[in-house]
Structure formats: C-alpha cells, structure tokens
Amino acid sequence: MSTIYLDEQGSEVKKKGELLIIEKDDKTIAEIPLAQLDRMVIIGNIQITTPALALLLDNEIPVSFITTYGNYRGKLKPPTHKNILLRLKQYECYNNKTFRLNHSKEIIRAKLKNGKTFLQKHWRNNPEIDINQEMKEIEASQRSLDNVESIHEIMGLEGAAAKGYFSAFGKLVKKDFKFEKRTRRPPKDPVNALLSLGYTLLFNELLSAVEAIGFDPYLGFFHEVEYGRPSLAVDMVEEFRYLIDGIALTLINKEMLSMDNFIQQDNGGFYLNEKGREEFYHQYEKRITTEVQYCGMNINYRRIFCYQAERLAKVIKGEEGRYMGYETK
Questions:
Q1: Segments of the chain with pLDDT less than 50
Q2: b/e burial code for range 57-66 (CB count within 10 A of at least 16 → b)
Q3: What pTM was computed for the model?
C-alpha cells in the first residue's frame, strides 16, 4: 500500500473499473490499481471525476488537497468514525487542567529531545560548526519543563528552545542556501519553503492518524481550540518535526536541489517549482516509509504515527497511565 502524490498540472483523475486513470490532453499518463493505494494527495490544478471520488470514498481512501505552494486545503474522507465513546472521553480530558498540563509537557519533552538528538547527529558530522550556545538554550528549556505550572509557561519554554534550535539548524545549512529564522505564510526563503511544505505533509499524516482512531481532530490539549484548526493533529506533529528538518538538510546539503528549483512570488514568498516538488515528494515518501525500531518492532514512520495515536487513545480511555512521546535514537 502507498501514498500517491498527483502533481501533473492540468491532468484529470478518472475511474475505470478498479483502476484510477490519470489523463492529460486526452492521453493516459498513469494507471493506479486501487489495491495498491491507501491515500491520495492532489497538488494544485488537477481535476477528479465524481465516479473516481466515489470509488475512493467507498474504499475508505482519503483524498487530501494541497496548493502548489504547499498550503493545506482540506480532505475528502469517509464518514466520521463511529467511536463516540472515545470522543466523550477526549472532551472530559480537555476539561481536566491537570491532564492537559501533563500531556502538554510530554509532547514538548519529546519534541525538545528529538530536536536535540537531531542536531547532535548532524553536529558530529560537522564538528567545525559551533552550536554550543544553541544546545545550552535547548537544554535549559528541558531542565525547566518539569517545574512549569501552566501551558502558557510551556509555550514560553518551547519558544526559547525553538529560537536556539533554528539558529543551530541554520548553521548546518550549506551551499548557496541561507536560513536565519523560521518564516511562514509566506516562507521568505527556499529553506523555509521546504519546511513549510514538509510540515504540511506531516500534518496531513497526523490528521489521518487521529481521525482513523475516532478522535475529534479539532480538540487538542496543548494547542488551544481555534475555529477551523485541527489542534489535536497539530499537537501530534510536534514530536516529528525533526523528520522534515532532516529532509530539508538532505535535499540542500547533498545538492539534490539548487536555487533554480525555487520560484519567488510577488508576495515575497519562495516556493518549489514542479521539478523541485517531485524531488521533495520522493524524498519525503522515502523518509516516512523508512523502518526504525519502535517498541520492539521494525516499522515505518507512517505506522508509528498510527501507533502513537492509539497510545493516546489508551491513555484517554484510562487503559494506560500517561502518554509517552516518541523518541528518536
């Protein structure tokens, strides 16, 4: 089973029996057997017929829509999961301030640890780069985390650690690329363009994972409720952001992308061109399907996302004591 990224602008997705046919200019450019598909991501100006959508929905295959600039538009998926009892428990936990505080600490604890581990790995390969001060800033936030008494304080520690993290990250970026700080909507440089696109894809993965369990994705515990924002999925993205940061460094430092793969729009934002997006999706899928050790199993990250959502469900239902964030090694 796999994820299909459709990025051929002006093409159309049609149904033919149990096949999805991709056509452009009245010519078939791809045939996708339904049995080999578990999700589809449509990027930009691509049409999809009603019979093709019905086939996907009948087979419980979600279809996500993303702009060519990497902005998430939405998703078509089967009806809401029937697990109302889990959602009732989720609402109860949201109203429990102690639960929200402890859960938020665990999310950020895992995020800070994974970020630090990520930087240490790249630092070992680039000992000439000095990120000592940045590492101290992250470690200071780690030490203070257990003593905070509000989610607002956690956000403050996360912000301080993020400042140090992205400063160190910028020093690891090589070649003609530069990264000074995280910018979004629009991303102000090519590195931010890669991060924004990757975080969007990662968000889509975690959104699918929490919806598959039966959660209400709009009710998170760390990120506040905000109209139209799937806060629970945003919560779960935090532990795994380092995956996208690694993809960005690989694409740049191994010269898989050059400045020619980026376009600057009138709004000052930078975005990948079609060839650049193709390489990005390839590297993203390669990374997400890489198998690693997880609870004694060799599984890929996409399965880990689902297992982490299941772990949270067990905690919310009272079957486990507390949520354990994912830690990379």
A1: none
A2: eeeebbbbbb
A3: 0.86
